[in-house]
Amino acid sequence: MSARNLQPWSFIIVRDPGTLRDLGALCTTGRYVADAPAAVVLLKDTENKRWADIDCAQAVCNMADAGWAMGLGTCFVGNFDSDAIARRLGVPDRWAVFTVLPFGYPDLGNPPSAKPLKPRREMVHFERFGNPAP
Fold first, then answer.
1. I need a labelling partner for 113 at 20 to 30 A (CA). Which of 8, 35, 45, 96 fits?
2. In terms of residue numbers, what domain contains 18?
3. Which whole-number Å values give the CA distances from 4 to 11, 42, 56, in the listed order?
4. Maximum CA extent, the chain
C-alpha cells in the first residue's frame, strides 16, 4: 500500500557475506548487519518528495512484522553512510537509501530485557494536547 499507489520504493536483497560485512561497517547504529544472513536495503524515490518517507516507513514496518511473524529477528538501521552504501550497491542518483533491514534468527539465549513504556498520561491526550487520558 502506498499513497496514490506510486510505490516510491525499490528493494535490494543482500545475501553475500562480504557485502553484508561492508554494509555493517557503514551502519553506525547497525553493526549487527555484518552478522545477518540477509538484509534488505530499502531505497526511496527522491522524485516523490511528498509521500516517499511515509510509504517507505510503512514498507519497513510491514516487512519487520512479517519477519517477526515467521520467527525472524530484525531491526531497521537508523544511522548509516547512505552515500557509501549507494556507491557499494550501484544505486542510481534518483534513489536514496532509506534504511537497511537485516533479517536472521534471533539468539534467544540472551533475550533483551523489556523496557518500560512511558506512562499513558504522557503520550495520550484527549481533544487537546495536555488533556490527560482518564
1. 35
2. 3-123
3. 19, 19, 14
4. 53
What is the per-residue burial (b if ≥16 Cβ within 10 Å, else e) of 86-98? bebbebeeebbbb
Partner residues linked to 102 by β-bridges: 39
Domains identified in the chain, total number:
1
- For residue range 35-51, what is the model confidence (pLDDT) as tens digits? 999 999 999 999 888 88
| Cell of residue 129, nine digits | 494536547
**Is 46 within a domain?**
yes
- The cell numbers describing 41, all together, are 536495503
Please report the DSSP string for 71-113 in residue order: T-EE-------HHHHHHHHT--TTEEEEEEEEEE---TTSPPP
- CA angle centred on 87, ends 83 and 90, rounded to 5°: 130
Supply 66's cell numbers: 512479517
Model pTM?
A: 0.84
